[in-house]
Amino acid sequence: MSKYSAFAIARQAFQNNTGWKRAWRNAQPKSRYDVVIVGGGGHGLATAYYLGKNFGITNVAILEKGWIGGGNTGRNTTIIRSNYLQDPSAALFEKSRDLFETLSQDLNMNVMFSPRGVLMLAQTEAEVRGYKRTVMANKLQGVETDFIGPERVKELCPIMNINGPRYPVLGGQWQARGGTARHDAVAWGFARACSDMGMDVIQNCEVTGVDRANGVVTGVRTTKGDIACDKMGIVVAGHSGALADMAGFRLPIESLALQALVSEPIKPCMDIVVMANTVHGYLSQSDKGEMVIGGGTDGFNNYTQRGSFHHIEETVRALIETFPMLSRLKMLRQWGGIVDMTGDRSPILSKTPLGNCFINCGWGTGGFKATPGSGYAMAELIATGEPAPLTEAFGLERFKEGRFIDESVAAGVAH
Ligand SMILES: Cc1cc2nc3c(=O)[nH]c(=O)nc-3n(C[C@H](O)[C@H](O)[C@H](O)COP(=O)(O)OP(=O)(O)OC[C@H]3O[C@@H](n4cnc5c(N)ncnc54)[C@H](O)[C@@H]3O)c2cc1C
Question: Which residues pair with 219 in a beta bridge?
């Protein structure tokens, strides 16, 4: 892999930036692969990367119907944290947060990981109790979080009004090493590393059918022809139900639009991420100065990757009591992505009824933060064929057995 370095940037400056190589090959499909990954979002690409890095499996194709990172990976608000309540979730999300710490060096691509701190506001007594409970659980899990009082909240985020008449700030759950990263760079970094290992990253290649025989997948049909494979990983987020349907099984997943918006850019005024889950809104400030704002999912199932006016109004209205400065800002643009929601708000990393087919989905509103960890765990599942400590609680069978991993407080609204 050619190194991105300060020296390379200086050299390119003298050549008018004409010498940069393509970051990944524009691959066309071969007739057969050891592993086919459907979905070129962050999770699919990370899965392929760790298959190569940790297991030496490099005869891999990543099939993406659009452009890599064009799904939820490139549409999210980039919040990274691991302050979940249940032990299996905390382990998986903390593994991911930890991988983010060195991801730029590992991929030789600046993913702009910014551990600026994530604050989840407690604005009701119930939230105070809930977050204190999570902080105690996090201490036992080895995840560093604290419950802080309103004065410390104000110190961390001076633009906040902590004395609102309806929802005064009573404190918050603070994860100092949570933060944000550049979502596109995460996808690009993984794609570049995969391509460099000899894998084929194939864009504009939609999977339209799954061929099966004797209880296993034999290959996929795509808009670029049929491709045979020994193993298949389905990593398509909001389209998981459609892919499972092609493969002949059903998933306990709902697909919903989740929207976000950004304001006009303003001077730096907020250097942490804040979530106000009672009122259903959260915000951070991007490097360009825009306030990045999000809320809850649409209240009905749909596949439209679009924003809507009522969402801007609802989300901004919810946040204005705590962030009065928002009332003076113009909103610049909005968008939507299709998220894959499970009933217990925890992901699925699982074997399927087809022996050599594995699925990674159900990350809902909060899977960006899990990108490296999810890929790391999914690669292990595909390579060994069996769940390992990071994945065993997240199997599909939990929905039959009633063994839910209830994260409705940590992940229901928060991202
Ligand atoms: C508005 C919004 C805000 C969010 N904010 C956060 C946040 O702050 N923090 C956080 O952690 N998470 C957040 N999320 C959730 C996060 O974005 C997702 O959980 C995560 O990006 C999922 O990654 P993925 O790779 O699984 O899915 P995706 O990035 O959606 O990738 C799946 C890919 O599969 C492709 N695909 C689908 N069908 C086919 C097919 N038939 N053939 C080939 N390819 C196919 C799609 O085109 C897509 O590129 C947010 C999501 C949205 C929409």
Answer: 211, 228
Residue 78, ligand 1, Cβ within 6 A: yes
Q: Is 239 in the pocket of ligand 1 (CB under 6 A)?
A: yes
Q: Which atom of ligand 1 is nearest to the CA of 78?
A: 8
The tens digit of pLDDT for each residue in 262-304 reads 999 999 999 999 999 999 899 999 999 999 999 988 888 989 8
Looking at 286-410, which runs of residues are DSSP E strands? 291-301, 331-341, 348-351, 357-361
Strands 60-63 and 32-38 turn out to be: parallel
Q: Are 202 and 229 in contact (CB under 8 A)?
A: no
Q: Is 279 in the pocket of ligand 1 (CB under 6 A)?
A: no
Q: Is the CB of 206 under 6 A from ligand 1?
A: yes
Average pLDDT over the chain reads 95
Q: What is the DSSP string of 314-338?
A: HHHHHHHTT-GGGGGPPEEEEEEEE
Which atom of ligand 1 is nearest to 222's Cα? 42
- Condensed to tens digits (0 to 9), the pLDDT of residues 348-369 reads 999 999 999 999 999 999 999 9
CA-angle at 111, arms to 109 and 116, nearest 5°: 145
Nearest to 288 by CA among 175, 415, 160, 182: 182
Cα(237) to centroid(ligand 1), Å: 5
Whole-structure pTM value: 0.97
* Tens digit of each residue's pLDDT (9 = 90 or more) over 104-155: 999 999 999 999 999 999 999 999 999 999 999 999 999 999 999 999 999 9
Q: Identify whether the C-beta of residue 211 lies closer than 8 Å to the C-beta of residue 219.
A: yes
Please indicate whether residue 171, judged by its CB atom, sits closer than 6 Å to ligand 1. Answer: no
Q: In ligand 1, which atom is closest to the CA atom of 370?
A: 11
**How far, in Å, CA of 17 to CA of 34, rounded?**
37
**139-142 long-range contacts, CB within 8 A, separation 24+:** 141/87, 141/90, 141/91, 141/94, 142/94
Please write the tens of the pLDDT for every residue from 8-46. Answer: 899 999 999 999 989 999 999 999 999 999 999 999 999
Element (H, E) at 122: strand 118-122
Pocket probe for ligand 1: among 220, 236, 345, the residue whose CB has the most ligand atoms within 8 Å is 236
Selection from 150, 154, 199, 190 nearest residue 69 by Cα? 190
Ligand 1 site, residue 367, Cβ cutoff 6 A: yes
